[in-house]
C-alpha cells in the first residue's frame, strides 16, 4: 500500500493508472494529500486527489493499478469526484490500523 509519506513526497508528480488493458495507462497528477485523521479504535485515514486531462476521457470508479517511478505500483480504488473546465479530479481514501 502507498503510504502518506510517499504521497506527500510525490505531490505534483505523475502517476499512471491502468484501468483498461486495451488502453494506455491514464496519466494522473497528484494535486492534494490530506492530513492524517484519527478515526478511533487505533485507525487513521487520509485521502489524495489526482487530476487528469479531459482529453483522455473519464475513468470510471474502480480499483486499478497505479504506478509512480518513486513509489512503485499498487492497486487502489479511485473515484471521479469533480469535473473542471480542462480536467477531471479523482479521489482515493486510505484507512488503516496504526502500527500495521
UniProtKB/TrEMBL annotation:
Domain DUF6916: 2-94
Highest taxon in the source lineage: Bacteria
Record-linked InterPro entries: DUF6916
Protein name in UniProt: DUF6916 domain-containing protein
Organism encoding this protein: Hahella chejuensis (strain KCTC 2396)
